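Quarterly update from the structural biology core.
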Amino acid sequence: MNDLKEHHAEIGIIGGTGIYDPELLTNAESIKIFTPYGKTSDLVTIGQYKGRSVAFIPRHGKGHTIPPHKVNSRANIWALNSLGVSRIIAPSAVGSLQQKYRPGDIVLPNQFVDFTKKREYTFYDEGQVCHVSCADPFCNDLRDIFLKTSKELKYDVHEGSTYICIEGPRFSTRAESKFFKDVLHGDIIGMTLVPECVLAREMQICYISIATITDYDVWYENPVSSKEILEVLAKNAVKIKELLGGLIAAIPETRNRCKCKSALSEAMV
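Predicted structure, tokenized:
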């Protein structure tokens, strides 16, 4: 195990489907972090980007070997917190539940509806009870900075969207997809947001989800395929890297415009 006293990072990136390596970082070093919750998805890579210290974890492993329902989010979030990370940027791939959300578009969700079933949702399983608020599950400061960055780079971003999180690894049935779209009025659908963002909130870490739409979900005419998803992600790779780079460079060192750092102040029983 590496001595964590020698390693520090301000910002964490949990790379989703299609983002498996930390190409943005210089002076990169990969380390193994042992956690009370088991193995992280892969080695944690720590490096620099424009003077900022950044830690990167590929959510599904570098070879995409971990299915969404098996991602050890508690280990990933604990590891980033142990390095001193106070902000997490979380790119992911999602399907669209609305006609106006097109493949290739970028979406910044501000709400989620959780349909996962058997995941580890909290760090507080025993000894102390924690009811953390998820009324507004994403950091408002990071959202504002990202929207400003996207405008400067002239990339359109959908905001104010609802993410439907399902268990996976299978895709939805047509009936489920129409339910999520027409009854719940969800905008995008994916498999990895929960419990990742909730665990970050329990660690009082600012968290933002940056979702790339890869397809129309199965409410549309044609069922989705993994091949189509990877093709869209490959085309969007440059866009995502530019947005990540711009966001990292614009994040202030202090956290004064959000309540994430005090998320547990009224949560403990």
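The chain has a mean pLDDT of 92.
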